[in-house]
Amino acid sequence: MTARTHAVYSHKTADVVLIGGGIMSATLGSIILQLEPGWDICLYERLDRAGMEASDSWNNAGTGHSALCELNYSPASADGSVEPTKAIKINEQFQVSRQFWSHMVVAGHIGAPRKFINPIPHMSFVWGDGPADYLRRRYEALKPQPLFETMEHTEDHATLSEWAPLVMGGRDPKQRVAASRVEGGTDIDFGSLTRELTEFMEKNDVDLNFGMEVTNVVRGSDGRWEVSVKDRATGEEATVRARFVFIGAGGGALHLLQRTGIPEGKGFGGFPVGGQFLRCGNEEVVDQHNAKVYGQASVGAPPMSVPHLDTRFVNGKRSLLFGPYAGFSTKFLKRGSLLDLPLSLRPSNLIPMLAVGKDNMDLAKYLITEVLKSRESKNEGLREYYPQADGHAWELITAGQRVQVIKKHPTKGGILQFGTEMITSSDGSIGALLGASPGASTAAPIMFEMLERCFPQQATAWQQKIKEMIPGYGVKLNENPQLAREILSETAKTLQL
C-alpha cells in the first residue's frame, strides 16, 4: 500500500479510532468493518506505510506461532514432565486467526494467499542427553492431542538428514540429536498481510492516515475520547473525537496508555529488547533447507530469543534467516527515541520495574553478553544449527524492537511477563495491547476478545456473523477432533497450504 495523506482538519468525529498501522489494528478494523459496516473508522500510523514496524517481514520471525516447534510454550516442570496446556491454548488461538484469514480470502476481501502465507514444516531440534530426553517427553505429551496428532519424532541421523540437510551436514555422527516435526506448519509475511487488510479497509471507506503521529489521548467532558494527531511532515495538528479507541501501536502503546489516565493502565511498565538476524539469499544454500527449525533458549534469554534457522518467503522470494541475537536499546520502537524507556517511568510503575530488575539478573547478564558478541561469535551460533555455514556470506540485519510487559505483583512487587497483555477501561470505551510473542499469530482471537470486553451489548447480535467468519468460534478444537480435522482441512485448501 502506498502512503496516503489527508488534508489536516482541526476537528473530526469517529465511531472508532485505531492507533497504529500494524497487524493488530488492521485485524480489528477489518473485523469491525464486517460487523458494523455503518461505523465511521479512522486509522492513524506514524510511518508512511502500513505494517512497517513490528509487523514488518524482517522485523519478526513470521513463524505463525502455533506451538508446533516453539519449546518455550511447553517447558519441562521441576519433575521433568511436560504440561501441554499452554501449547494447546496457543494453537487454538492460531486456528482462529487461520480461520479468519481463510474467510477473508473466500470472501474476496484480500488477495491470493501466497502473498502472505506459505506452507513450511515446523521442527524442534536439540542435541545432548538432557535436551533429547526432554524433547521426547514433550512429543509424548503433545502427540495424543488432536491439534498435534501429525507430529513426528526421531533421533535417527539419516531421517534428520532428510528433514533438514543443512542442520545435519558436517555434524558429529556420534552426537545425540533429537527432533520433532509437524509438516503442516506455515511461514507468514505479516507485513504483507497487514497491507492486504488495510487495502480492504481503504476500499470500504475507512479513513487511513499515514505519516500522522498520535501525541495524546484524553477523555473529553462528554465522555468521548479526544485523540490528538500531528502531521510529521508539516507539523500541523488536529483532534479526533471518538466513541472507542484502540491503542495498537506496538512499542508505542505504553506511552499512550499512560496518557489516557485510566486506572486499569496504571502500574504497567515496559522493558525493550532488540534483535538482529543473519540472512542468506544464496539460492544454492536456501534451496537445501525447507523448514523452520527451533532450538532451546539460552539461560536468562527471553522467549523471543529462541534460536531458529528459518525458511522465509518475503515478496515471493525464499531466503534463510538465523537468529535472533538479542540487543538492548532504550527505544520502544525501531524508529523510536532513546528517551522512550526513561519517559515511561511513573510513580505507579517504579516499584514493579525495580522489582523486575532485581529478580531478573540472569536476563541482564544475557543481554550484556549478547551486546558484546563479536561477529565471529554470532557466526559460531549459526554453525551450531548449520555446521558447514560460511557465516561471513550471511548479511547481519537489525530486527524490530519488542517491549516486554512489566506489571504489578501482590507479593513480588513486579513481574516481567512474556506474551501479550490486553488492557480495557471499565466502560469499554478504550482498549490497548502491550507485549510481544505470540502476538501477530494470535491477532484475530485477541481482537475478538477485545470486542467482547468492550462491546458486551452488541456481542449477542454479532454472534451469527462471527460464526460465519470463524466456524469454530467458541469451540475448543482440541476437544472436538472431528471438527478440528474439518477446519484444518478446509483452511488448508482455502489458503493453498
Describe this structure in words.
With 497 residues, the chain is of the alpha+beta class. 33% of the residues lie in helices and 25% in strands. The strands form three sheets. Strands 4, 5, 6, 12, 13, 14, 15, 16, 17 and 18 form a ten-stranded mixed β-sheet that branches. Strands 1, 2, 8, 9, 10, 11, 19 and 20 form an eight-stranded mixed β-sheet that branches. It is globular and about 70 Å long. It catalyses: (S)-malate + a quinone = a quinol + oxaloacetate.
Name the beta content range.
25-35%
Which structural class should the secondary elements be placed in?
alpha+beta
Oligomer: single chain
| Number of H/I helices | 15
From the alpha carbons, calculate the radius of gyration and give it in angstroms: 22 Å
Give the strand tally. 20
Tell me about the largest β-sheet.
10 strands, mixed
Cofactor: FAD
GO molecular function, one term: L-malate dehydrogenase (quinone) activity
Pathway: Carbohydrate metabolism; tricarboxylic acid cycle; oxaloacetate from (S)-malate (quinone route): step 1/1
EC number: 1.1.5.4
